[in-house]
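Saturday, quiet lab. Running sequence design on the structure tokens for the scaffold JK sent over.
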């Protein structure tokens, strides 16, 4: 294809430019691209809680305070990995910010804690070994308490991520064994200037690029047409300028 373009542009002094443009266009169409799948999760720990146990024969309800929910409650969401990918997550609960997917998040939410589990509920990772105040995080009331989580490389499958207030970690992590279904420690906290809203992104980056989409032949025909017509227009322009 590129030899074909070169043959019909060699008579123009603009041939190198035309051929370079055509070459870049062809390569851009044919080059595979890495991509990341970002999933945004947001809500309120009180209204979205999926874990509401507060001890023996105790379940959180409407009569409980926000401080009770911060102490005991958890929101457990699931996400799917379609192919082996590197997983990370970043929160916006405390300092606010803008999700990679677009929505804006207000500051003043809870100090977040994220925990990652596989499909069977086995503990994989948490923000305990993550980064507090990662690059790009915002401060609120003079503090920066948002977190990033490094989930490592995940095989294709379903995973669970739990959002809790800081220090309300899973018993599976706390004891070094067990399961997501075992619950949480129940020692989360909430400052007086914080509320229960939360937000975070889960970012999945495939370990290999997807196959490039097929490039239709009309694209090449269009490029060839540009190469064929360019010398004609250039000659016409020079003729008009010299007339």
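Result came back. Writing it out in full:
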């Amino acid at each position: 294809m590129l030899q074909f373009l070169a043959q019909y542009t060699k008579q123009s002094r603009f041939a190198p430019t035309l051929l370079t443009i055509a070459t870049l266009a062809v390569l851009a169409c044919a080059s595979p691209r890495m991509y990341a799948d970002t999933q945004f999760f947001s809500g309120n720990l009180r209204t979205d809680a999926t874990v509401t146990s507060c001890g023996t024969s105790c379940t959180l309800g409407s009569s409980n305070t926000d401080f009770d929910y911060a102490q005991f409650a958890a929101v457990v969401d699931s996400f799917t990995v379609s192919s082996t990918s590197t997983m990370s997550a970043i929160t916006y609960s405390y300092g606010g910010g803008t999700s990679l997917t677009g929505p804006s998040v207000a500051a003043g939410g809870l100090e977040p804690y994220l925990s990652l589990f596989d499909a069977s509920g086995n503990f994989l990772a948490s923000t305990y070994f993550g980064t507090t105040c990662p690059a790009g995080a915002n401060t609120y009331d003079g503090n920066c308490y948002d977190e990033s989580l490094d989930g490592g490389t995940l095989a294709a499958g379903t995973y669970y991520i739990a959002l809790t207030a800081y220090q309300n970690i899973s018993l599976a992590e706390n004891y070094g064994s067990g399961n997501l279904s075992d619950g949480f420690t129940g020692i989360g906290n909430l400052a007086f200037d914080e509320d229960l809203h939360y937000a975070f992104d889960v970012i999945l980056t495939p370990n290999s690029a997807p196959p490039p989409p097929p490039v239709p032949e009309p694209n090449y025909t269009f490029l060839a047409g540009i190469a064929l017509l360019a010398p004609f227009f250039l000659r016409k322009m020079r003729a008009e300028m010299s007339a």
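Notes for JK: The first strand starts at residue 37 and ends at 44. Residues 217-242 form the longest helix (26 residues). Ask whether to fix the surface positions before the next round.
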